Amino acid sequence: MGVWAKLRGFVKSRPRIGFIRPMALKLDWGRENVVAIKGHFAGSLRIKGSNNHIELPASAVFKGHILIRGHNCRVTIGEQCHLVSDIVIKGSNQSISIGEGTTFAGVYLLCLEQCHIKIGRWCMFSRKIEVRTSDAHSLIDRKTGLRLNAAGSVTIGDHVWVGVGAILNKGTAIADDSMVGAMSFVNKPFAESGVVIAGTPAKIVKSGITWNRERKRKFSAADMDAWRQPPTGS
User: How far apart are CA 204 and CA 124, in angstroms?
Assistant: First the structure.
């Protein structure tokens, strides 16, 4: 290979570098990626693929880092979200969506193996939380040679509170209006809404609950169901 061919290859392997916002660096190795970031973004966006779509509306805040290594992936963040998060997608045709009004104090999202992460409206995630669609490595049955820990999408309903240090692993599904206790390990679906899920592995420890960001002795029915209001603009 000649010198000029090597130089062209080197140039093509370098990302296009720009700033989305004064404190938001974008590195784009692909083409036809759509970056629709209108809200406050502080951190970095790295895209190593093509035809990806990242959306942050004007009313939302994101602080952290987003890495997409694949094609045809989507990261969609809803209105009025306030997120401190690192988001990683490795692989193609995957999506992460976060609904209106959701907040993260410190959350790591890892999307692998053609799976998806969907988090609903008005959720509240504390810090040191991981949400993963895969263990990232294989656990193998020595007798059969088969992998035991298959990947799986993660689905979180509306108005779910997740306590500090929880891990929501592959295959997790949590119904609306529920709470996940601190340091819990969740790795299966829970179809019942209005429950507290806690433990390692997690199980339902209390039913018939709701929760609220405020702290007071008693809440009215209107207080308890305020999160059920229609999405903004509907």
Answer: 19
Q: Cα–Cα distances in Å, from 7 out to 11, 27, 28, 57, 172?
A: 6, 20, 19, 39, 47
**Mean pLDDT over each residue of the chain, to the nearest integer:** 93
| pLDDT given for residue 16 in this prediction | 84
In degrees rounded to 5, what are phi and psi of residue 206? Answer: -160, 140
5 phi and psi angles, rounded to 5 deg: -65, -40
User: Domain segments of the chain: what residues?
Assistant: 15-101
Structure tokens at 96: 């992460």
Asked whether the predicted pLDDT for residue 71 surpasses 90, the reply is yes
**DSSP 8-state assignment for residue 23:** T
> 83 to each of 42, 111, 141, how far by Cα in Å?
11, 17, 39
pLDDT digits (tens, 9 = 90+) for 104-137: 999 999 999 999 999 999 999 999 999 999 999 9
Q: To which residue do tokens 């083409």 refer?
A: 31
> Counting beta carbons within 10 angstroms of the beta carbon of residue 221, is it exposed (0 to 12), middle (13 to 18) or buried (19 or more)?
exposed
Residue 6 has pLDDT above 90, yes or no: no
The sign one gets for the Cα dihedral 218, 222, 227, 228 is: positive
For residue 228, the tally of other CB atoms under 10 A from its CB is 12
pTM: 0.91
32's enclosing H/E stretch is none
Q: What is the rounded distance in angstroms from the CA atom of residue 61 to the CA atom of residue 231? A: 18
> 168: how many CB neighbours lie within 10 A of its CB?
30
ω into residue 22 within 30 of 0, thus cis? no
